Amino acid sequence: MSFQKILQGKKIDLALFINPSSSGHSHELVYFCQYDGCGALLVPRSAKPLLIVPKMFEEQAQKGIVKNIRVLDKKKLFESIKETIKKQGIPARTIGICFQTFTHSLYTAFKKEFRKAKIVDITNDFLQYRAVKSPKEIAVIKKGFSIANSVFEKTMKNFSDFRTESDVAAFMLYESKKQGCEVSFPTIIASGKNASIPHYFEAQSKLNSGLCVIDFGIRFKGYNTDMTRTIGIKKVTEHERQKYNMLLKIQKKLIGQARIGIKCADLYNSCLALLKTDAKYFTHGLGHGIGVQLHELPNLSSSSKEILKNNMVFTIEPGIYLPKKMGIRIEDSIIIQKKPIILTKPTKELRIL
Ligand SMILES: [Mn+2]
User: Fold this and answer.
1) Are 170 and 158 within 8 A, CB to CB?
2) What is the mean pLDDT of the chain?
3) Ligand 1 center to residue 50 CA distance, Å?
4) How far is ligand 1, taken at its centre, from the CA of residue 331, in Å?
5) CA dist 127 → 21, 74, 281 (Å)
6) Which residues face 331 on adjacent strands?
7) DSSP 8-state secondary structure symbol assigned to residue 127
8) Closest CA to 267 of 199, 321, 320, 317
């Protein structure tokens, strides 16, 4: 794997990724192994990666793509890792770990066994490496979005059956599960004035008439999707429709501006400029990369250092939130190539249901 080139460049002997809990989730193991159980992945600078798992996870791990698997004996995790490293003759003077996911207690246990090793944070290297997707990943991502699109359309078709915001969220969860997917985050159904809270969580509230924000994502084969549509329930005012169409025009324009070589911060600033006086109601980033994590690089914000590269996958999601009145967000996920490919297919023309 070419991730090893990064280790070579930084003179890191070994990268170590861990999912210490049998009920936990590690996007790192998912990324490298297509395995989401407990265990430790050792990526040496030049030798084959090695996965160490508890006995109860052996069969599950064998279904992944890293076939070099050792079963953990009864010893503590880091003792076993140390022993394996010794036996295999893997150099481990400098070890790279992700500070973002290595908890303090995990680090303390780790340092007990690796007192002399030099520890390097590789969080950012790993994030940057993952920002550009491979053709294989793109195929999985496209399939995930085609499922998400179909669940969304089915929800629109059945909308007259729903009485509460929770009804809508439950239907989307059920339809996703039926297709073998988890939701990436609790679906946001924010109707009427509830939509002024960007990450509103529904609580069996009746569906209010007016604008309704639906933010929905699923996880397919470890990869997340993300999409937001704002629809109208029963009737919308002229003011709401006008704000919606204004935001839609801006969102389309920004997608058009997304090109290889563009600075992410410039795209964000362009959004602020287009929103004019409504920019004060835009309270979050313009978008984020998506992959094995729902939010990863590139980050479309004012402080972003990233430049758009071929085969990055990310969202463009301008929104405006008028406190205690209403909210609108329109979010597409796109792959950046010569031209941006839009993965989220449901219509952006304002639907009234
Ligand atoms: Mn998003």
Assistant:
1) no
2) 96
3) 34
4) 7
5) 22, 33, 30
6) 228
7) H
8) 317
Given the DSSP bridges, would you call strands 210-216 and 188-191 parallel, antiparallel or unpaired?
A: antiparallel
Torsion angle of C-alpha atoms 283, 141, 122, 30, degrees rounded to 10: 120
Write down the residue that tokens 């597409």 correspond to.
332
DSSP classification of residue 160: G
Q: How many angstroms does the Cα of residue 333 sit away from the middle of ligand 1?
A: 8
Give 290-324 pLDDT, tens digit per residue: 999 999 999 999 999 999 999 999 999 999 999 99
- Is residue 84 classed exposed, middle or buried when 0-12, 13-18 and 19+ CB atoms within 10 A define those classes? middle
pLDDT number for residue 1: 53
* Cβ contact 90:66 at 8 Å: no
**How far, in Å, is the centroid of ligand 1 from the Cα of 217?**
8
Cα–ligand 1 centroid distance for 38 (angstroms): 28
Pairing of strands 69-71, 50-53: parallel
Burial class (CB in 10 A: 0-12, 13-18, 19+), 103: exposed
Task: Name the pTM for this structure.
Answer: 0.95
Ligand 1 mean position, distance from CA 203 (Å):
21
Report the separation in Å between the CA atom of 109 and the middle of ligand 1, taken as the mean of its atom positions. 35
The residues that bridge with 326 in the sheet, in sequence order, are 322
In angstroms, what is the span from residue 74 Cα to ligand 1's centroid? Answer: 42
Q: Is the pLDDT of residue 74 over 80?
A: no
For 127, the token pair is 């994030």
pLDDT greater than 90 at residue 204: no
Alpha helices in 99-228 (DSSP H): 104-113, 123-131, 135-157, 165-178
Residue closest to 184 by CA, chosen among 25, 72, 45: 25
